[in-house]
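In practice, a research group might receive sequence data for several interacting partners and want a quick structural hypothesis before committing to experiments. The following worked case mirrors that situation: the sequences arrive first, and a predicted assembly follows.
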Amino acid sequence: MEISEIGEFGLIKRLTQSIKIKNESTLKGVGDDCAVVQYAAGNRTLITTDMLMEGVHFDLVYTPMKHLGYKSVMVNLSDIYAMNGTPRQITVSLAIGKRFKVEDLEDFYAGALLACEEHGVDLVGGDTTSSLTGLAISITALGEVRPEDVVGRDGAKETDVICVSGNLGAAYMGLQLFEREKSVYYDQLLKEKDPSKVEFQPDFSGREYLLERFLKPEARRDITMRLAEAGIRPTSMIDISDGLSSELMHICEQSGVGCRLYEERIPLDYQTAAAAEEFNLNVTTCALNGGEDYELLFTVPLTDHDAVSQLEDVRVIGYITAASEGKKLVCRDQSEFELKAQGWNPLANQD
Amino acid sequence: MEISEIGEFGLIKRLTQSIKIKNESTLKGVGDDCAVVQYAAGNRTLITTDMLMEGVHFDLVYTPMKHLGYKSVMVNLSDIYAMNGTPRQITVSLAIGKRFKVEDLEDFYAGALLACEEHGVDLVGGDTTSSLTGLAISITALGEVRPEDVVGRDGAKETDVICVSGNLGAAYMGLQLFEREKSVYYDQLLKEKDPSKVEFQPDFSGREYLLERFLKPEARRDITMRLAEAGIRPTSMIDISDGLSSELMHICEQSGVGCRLYEERIPLDYQTAAAAEEFNLNVTTCALNGGEDYELLFTVPLTDHDAVSQLEDVRVIGYITAASEGKKLVCRDQSEFELKAQGWNPLANQD
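A structural hypothesis for the assembly, expressed as tokens:
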């Protein structure tokens, strides 16, 4: 169905009619000049926002609209967890080109609402408009946190233990796989000219985990819950969107400290290692700079070392030092390098 | 200066370094995974968001970046006032193409921060990334309101008086002027081929007010303040972004009522009327459907009729009826028409 058949208000009605408010704090959702929310007395509000542009942040050749909706929401929820808060509401703004149908937008919303459902979040507003070119997505998430629970990037102290959840580099390898298969497909298309004659089956067997890490990242609420249950309060926390190296440097710079990160401690999935070898890439470099992991990187006091070591899916990867000792990566052969932020930089890389 | 010279983090630092937090409620601004805010105990949070796309919502041929920054913020603040709240924080996300320089972004931010300054609002976060094509802007505003002060679109009651602030149709006529001069310029350019040989002076004399209404709209905080001082609480309120007709229909539909709107009461500036005549347009149509006025449309109980009539820059334009009586426009000759929403619809008009 063409969007012009139902117009902006018709489209918004269609996309939002199934929404049921889940949070007590959501007093008014879609349908007025503003959404209205009210958190428990004394609690603080967290706000984060991310913009995703077609051709820069996502490629619709291998990204289904439903996955795109899910991921766009998840990357925002991840920022709320990274402040040790609980996400409550999101707004979703889309600017869409002429080639999109009502069904495409319904798929996007289905994915976005699934992510909301899993995290108990209400979609309370947004904007839907047109774009002369590609798809633009802008999502803002609001979260709630008790004042004493807020964890920023600036609280890491000397001797603190550096921890990370899950494993790193998998999403980056997933992206490499998609890009490779896309090239193979385009090569065939160039030869055949007629798309209907291209018999193309992408070869992803045994690599499903990597594709899923790229297409369907999960915000790590489970980690912040486990930390709270174990009575461990991180001194600093950040989510890994640009890459471990870049994020650890943010913590060090904002906390005024240094660090020692141990290469052998960096958690990797075997599929990530196997794919890196296949692509002739250094797997540590992928884990340090790949980005889009959406794992949590955090520091805890040394006294919590034993407790944190016992948490499921959390790995101790180094410790915080004085700023004067620099930000060091200690390699498997005990050689040391200064950490560099080579993570994804959309503005520096645009040429 | 090229943006790639300083990268995303360098650019954000440069754009946000002059920001000074003005609100007690802003506990943490730019620089972490989330901004952190806390309003006075018991108060509610208002959230609104708008997306503006180059070529759809603005034309950089006649929109200076500083004005664009100012306007992008103002249209969001206007939504907060339309709920009878006080804006406190905004986030600003930009996706920029290669042709933009650091100085362009600095101009945009200068305009955005000027709007913030005038309304006591803090810029607390956002996202800056690249676009393969045009400029995309997404702004979210947060506001604070006491529970008893919230005014939605759904509270209008039979016999309520319909009021509007300022005058209508001026921004639309400003846009027509800009579009006309742009056409004249392009015609000359086509003849001359060489841009440096085109001696072009746009003819805007005596029309400055219309251009300003289009380029630099003002969110009507003064109106909500005057209403509060006079002890008048609107039963419903909305800001006029798409056009008086469309907005009044929203109030009627969400309140389950009808209305009688009097053509002769619609406030017009003489420049709007003069320009409409010059363009051979019906000035009432411009006022009803032009959009981008960012005036406040609201209803008050009949008992407040005298009090509201005395407010500066507020005009009574009709009254609310039973839903069964329909939504009527009463013309100067006493003929009656059903109101139609012909306001700007970015999705229906895209072909």
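Before designing any experiment, note the following. Chain A touches chain B through 78 residues (CB under 8 Å). The two ends of chain A are 37 Å apart (CA to CA).
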